[in-house]
Please model this.
Amino acid sequence: MRGMKTNKNMKQNVITYGIVLVIFALVMIMKYTVGISSLLQGLLVPVCMYVMLAVSLNLVVGILGELSLGHAGFMCVGAFSGAFFSMCTKGAMPDLLRFVIAMLIGGAVAAFFGIVIGIPVLRLKGDYLAIVTLAFGEIIKNIMNVLYIGRDADGFHFSTKDMIDLHMGPDGQVIINGPQGITGTPNDSTFVIGTILVLLSLVIVLNLVQSRDGRAIMAIRDNRIAAESVGINITKYKLMAFTISAAIAGVAGVLYAHNLSTLTALPKNFGYNMSIMILVFVVLGGIGNIRGSVIAAIVLTLLPELLRGLNDYRMLIYAVVLIAMMLFNWSPKGIEFKERYAPRRLLRRNAGKE
Model:
């Protein structure tokens, strides 16, 4: 019985990976045959970033069952730490190696903040947890807007006042310039690298969900008291899910930072609206449904641009699609349809095998 369940999970995982690979192949074929617009081409890396963010947030919201609104903060920490490393080592090592190390640093720094924030915050529940994580994201964004870091022959200089207060020598270089952020970050992000990171994120999350640790995390979500009564370490597993989610968000931030010439901590980039948008991907794709998060992030990111030719009607169509996805995933009739359809499909599949 357990072997059948394992095979079923493996088959579902392969389908999820296959969707990503098929989309990647279609984009590459279009790129080198009929061609794609520069506007759509500019969205390829952001789509990968949003998929990673949606998948990682679903680990907390769907699998762990906690509402977090601080994902933009983890993304911001990862973006600035990775971009800072790239600026400091530009020209000192091969571009690919530098980018890989920057991603590792961004993920590690975000995971560190996930642990620091998660230890006290995960004792809270529901709205309280959402408010505290939201406050964390806003604090991180505001700190980056007042932080000045420069480098000269004497080393690094820090200030929270202005650039002049760094007191650097004539050979000094400002790396983080307060509200102006980081300028000149190497443009290392590509659609190929983004797709690889998406697949790695899916491998990590899906294998965690289907592992013993994942079952413990879902047991905490379903009934915390029952899970604790059978010896499951609540703090350990909640912190594990929260930290892994933060680390993936940090890597997504590094991917985002290396797709821009100037990285700034603006509200539209790392503010409240970004966290809400990621949560929308998770909810519309289905809470706890990792594949749904992938599809929702892709569709809802590309749809406004694909409908741009319709001018005034594109946002109306976008809103209709949002409502349709919500009704299909969460309305009683939609749930009943899926539950009724799935057994029939399985029966037809089994009949075909016989």
